[in-house]
Amino acid sequence: MRIGVLTGGGDCPGLNAVIRAIVRKGIPGYGHEFVGFRDGWRGPLEGDTTVLDVQAVRGILPRGGTILGSSRTNPLKIENGIARIKENLASLGVDALIAIGGEDTLGVARALHDSGVPVVGVPKTIDNDLNATDYTFGFDTAVGIAMEAIDRLHTTAESHHRALICEVMGRHAGWIALHAGMAAGANVILIPEKPFDIDRVVAYVESRFRTRYSPILVVSEGAHPVDGQMELLGGDLDAFGHVRLGGIGEWLAKEIEKRTGKEARTTVLGHIQRGGTPTAFDRVLATRFGLQAIDAVNEHDFGIMVALRGTDIVRVGLDEATATLKTVPVERYAEAEVFFG
């Protein structure tokens, strides 16, 4: 078989490990041939390919990003997008496609499968918000980066007797904020799933200031106050209809200063969370996903996504994987609230 591989959406530590595993098992193990599509869905839309053989994947395991490139191109918003992809796959002699990505990328994969293209999906998102899998690779790396940053903020906050706010990624799900905040001993964690009461947040901050320590707040970019709105960076939408979020950290800093008379500063980690070498956990998980994905293709088990359940890699339908977002449940947030203030 000749199999196409693409990586879509935001870059993520562990993508190269998936690609490597697919190729390293698919060529010597099954005798398949691979073609890499450049820059997400733009590649099959425009027939832009690159060689993807054993030599191409040597040495890429510890590298962040993706050797195939990525983009937020959405074929569903382009006239005859699905038809163009099918034509290009046919002309290139591609028998099946492995799509590595998050909710948006896999949503396109599902549409392609529904139109008759043999597709296997691999879940990827640092936000860990993809349904049907316990964890996605990239999440562990992002949490580790955020935790280290918050650890460092503790010392400077205490030196200057000010409140420090760390804004992390998380549009609709607060998994990064929850895990990083708990791991780093944050005094307040704010997530999109639970709108916050600014008076209560200020009370936590003042309580912390009464100790010899200074308050550290961790906030998801999509968090917002009760009866308030998410803070937006401009009004532009990407190809999948997402607005750029950001600014909630600065809003919080101003409110805390105004209400407490204490200095407050914000650190926005942004794309730092996506970059750099993946952790051991993410390298292993991504590798296992890649191995299971090429097994599924070899068995002609299409329309599925590989997923982690407990310690096992299983296969679930693409429809199940993209049906709903996985958000932080109330009981998990309650565990973190024990340590607020």
Characteristics:
13 strands; metal-binding; alpha/beta; Rossmann fold; 341 residues; 2 domains; single chain; seven-stranded mixed sheet
Structure notes:
- The chain is of the alpha/beta class and 341 residues long.
- The protein folds into two domains: 2-137 and 278-323, 3-Layer(aba) Sandwich (Rossmann fold); 140-274, Rossmann fold (3-Layer(aba) Sandwich), CATH 3.40.50.460.
- Helices cover 39% and strands 19% of the residues.
- The protein has eleven helices and 13 strands.
- It has helices at 15-30, 42-46, 81-91, 103-114, 139-160, 175-183, 198-209, 248-260, 280-298, 318-323, 330-337; strands spanning 2-7, 33-37, 49-51, 96-101, 119-123, 163-168, 188-190, 216-220, 232-237, 243-245, 264-268, 304-309, 312-317.
- The chain has a seven-stranded mixed β-sheet with strand order 3-2-1-4-5-12-13, sandwiched between helices. Strands 7-8-6-11 form a four-stranded parallel β-sheet, with helices on both faces.
- Helix 1 (15-30) packs parallel to helix 9 and helix 5 crosses helix 6 (175-183).
- The longest helix is centred in the middle third of the chain and has 22 residues, at 139-160.
- The chain is elongated.
- The mean pLDDT is 93.
- Belongs to the phosphofructokinase type A (PFKA) family. Mixed-substrate PFK group III subfamily.
- The record marks 124 as: Important for catalytic activity.
- Homodimer or homotetramer.
- The active site is at 127 (proton acceptor).
- Substrate binds at residues 125-127, 162, 169-171, 221, 265, 271-274.
